[in-house]
Amino acid sequence: MRTSEPVPMTLAVDDLSKRFGTTQALDGLALTVAPGEIVAVSGPSGAGKSTLGRLLSGLESADRGEIRLGSRAIQGLPPQQRAVAHMFESFALYPTLNVFDNVASPLRSPMHAGRIDPASIAERVENVLALTQMSHLAGRRPAELSGGQKQRVALCRTLVQTPDLFILDEPIGHLDAKLRHTLRGDIRARQGALAQGTLWFTPDAVEAMAVADRVVMLVGGRVRQIGTPRDIYLRPADTSVARLVGDPAMNLLDITLTSSDGSREIRHAGDAVRASPALRARLAALPGERYVLGFPPMHTQLCAPASAEADVLPGEIYAVEPFGKYTLVTASLAGTLLRAKVAPGYAAPLGAPVGIRMPESGVLIFDGDTGSILPDQ
């Protein structure tokens, strides 16, 4: 952490790998973060997000790969020489210090003793406390705080610094929904106006898309996709990404293509699927047998279960959840759960038969063996 204004630097990570025993935590990871850019790394628990943060900040050593901040290769440097401000998921607050002093502690560390005058420290601390709505708790100690309040103290202690790179590990994960929604916008506005890049780790892909300029989808220690939030939402690279993106996530329907009397039949769980001529034409040109159809709940409709229309799948009501502006209906189709966002007020008993209508256009096709999206879609 430095006291002067930072020089804009790009983080460049190449071929970063780390194994713990028999577990490959990261495998050949590569990414960049430009000055002022917010890059969210999203994936399920165990994807490698926290391991990546520890490698970048120098708390773990990589087995292979390079980490550069600007012109410096930093993978061999100790943490205090990397100029990285890292907010840890574990908070790690000083129990004997109050909120104000916990936040100010990086500015008063022996490395920087006397370099920042007390008035400047107070101003910077007060600014980040106000940003996170913690000003009224400045005099309390950690034992007097809730879990969400402790998280905000840890966040403030990171944001008060002037590093070359910010790493925020689940910075708002313990907050209530309303405060989380407010703070992610406020923090995004602040970080986006800075010269430094920010890496934001979260298991919530919706949060990642709300805060980031670009999103890295990390699954099983490997980067599955990097792109803008819009690109990842509209065209997930594979079914592992499709299952994580959106609220709710994309509907995925396993299908098998079989040949009969010179034509190809589309089946799900052994039952024939009535597809539109356009979808049938796309599937007929494919060489294999196993595929997955993907379509978003917001473009999925419900209809009469006996409908003979194309693109209608027969199922039964599994759950009906009203959300004010819309109702989320989950239907079961031979054990596969499909969801539709429909108009408010929809009601149907559980187990009732229902038709699920796929959208006429925009259905994505994934390889049933690899999970990868097919090209030219």
In short:
The protein is built from 9 helices and 20 strands.
Topology diagram in text:
Layout: E1 11-20, E2 23-33, E3 38-42, H1 49-57, E4 64-69, E5 72-73, E6 84-87, H2 99-104, H3 118-131, H4 147-159, E7 165-169, H5 177-192, E8 197-202, H6 205-211, E9 214-219, E10 222-227, H7 229-234, H8 239-242, E11 251-260, E12 263-268, E13 271-272, H9 277-284, E14 290-295, E15 301-303, E16 312-322, E17 327-333, E18 336-342, E19 353-357, E20 364-367
Pfam family, one: ABC_tran
Domain ABC transporter: 11-245
GO molecular function, one term: ATP hydrolysis activity
Instruction: Please write the string of helix (H) and strand (E) elements.
Output: EEEHEEEHHHEHEHEEHHEEEHEEEEEEE
Main sheet strand line-up: 6-7-8-3-9-10
What is the helix fraction of residues, given as a range? 10-25%
Radius of gyration: 25 Å
Oligomer: single chain
Strand fraction: 25-35%
> Can you name the CATH architecture of the largest domain?
3-Layer(aba) Sandwich
- CATH fold-level name of the largest domain: Rossmann fold
| C-alpha end-to-end distance | 46 Å
- Outline: elongated
By secondary-structure content and strand pairing, the structural class works out as alpha+beta
What is the CATH class of the largest domain?
Answer: Alpha Beta
- Contiguous low-pLDDT stretches (5 residues minimum) are none
Mean pLDDT: 94
**How many strands, which pairing sense, and closed or not: the largest β-sheet?**
6 strands, mixed
Number of strands: 20
Helix run count = 9
Number of domains: 2
- CATH homologous superfamily grouping of the largest domain: P-loop containing nucleotide triphosphate hydrolases
GO molecular function: ATP binding; ATP hydrolysis activity
Organism: plant metagenome
InterPro entries: AAA+_ATPase (IPR003593), ABC_transporter-like_ATP-bd (IPR003439), ABC_transporter-like_CS (IPR017871), ABC_transpr_MalK/UgpC-like (IPR047641), Mo/tungstate-bd_C_term_dom (IPR008995), NA-bd_OB-fold (IPR012340), P-loop_NTPase (IPR027417)
Keywords: ATP-binding, Cell membrane, Membrane, Nucleotide-binding, Translocase, Transport
